[in-house]
Specification:
With about 170 residues, this protein is mainly beta. It has a domain at about 1-115. It contains 3 helices and 9 strands; from the N terminus they run βββββββββααα. Strands 3, 4, 7, 8 and 9 form a 5-stranded antiparallel sheet that branches. Strands 2-1-5-6 form a 4-stranded antiparallel sheet, with no helix packed on it. It is extended.
Length: about 170
Amino acid sequence: MSYAIIETGGKQLRVEPGRFYDIELLPVEPEATVIIDKVLLIANNGDVHIGQPLVTGATIEGTVMRHFRGRKVIVYKMRPKKKTRKKRGHRQEITRLMINSINLNGSALTSEQAAETTPLSDEPVAAIAAPEISVADEPDAQTIMPDAAQETVESVVADEPDAETAPENTAE
């Protein structure tokens, strides 16, 4: 796995080829290629290049996908007991940047095409069959209720008084 840590818009960001990131607005048109040369660290398959403060000869190549505005942030200021209130909204301008490749000294360490063509496994995926359920597999009443429970139910029913033998309450 290869990645780089870059600085853009006053922030540091970990980027990988083939992924897109939302960064602060860049002054370029959509679908244009951007080269970022403020690379702080590059890691490529265990080989790490750390800059002091920047890695010399390292660049990140990306394509601007689109520009848009972020979510609205409400800034509310109030001074208690002074009857002063300010409510302001802010929406940050954002650029969506697709990282194409990580370059070191003019040669591409990793690129988006190499990340896409790497197969996960050469083995075909086996289909998993669902188990078949037949009507004969359904449990009958005896298996649902054990014999001991069946006897308990029958004894409770037998203990109830019948309407014919029960004494009537006659308070006359």
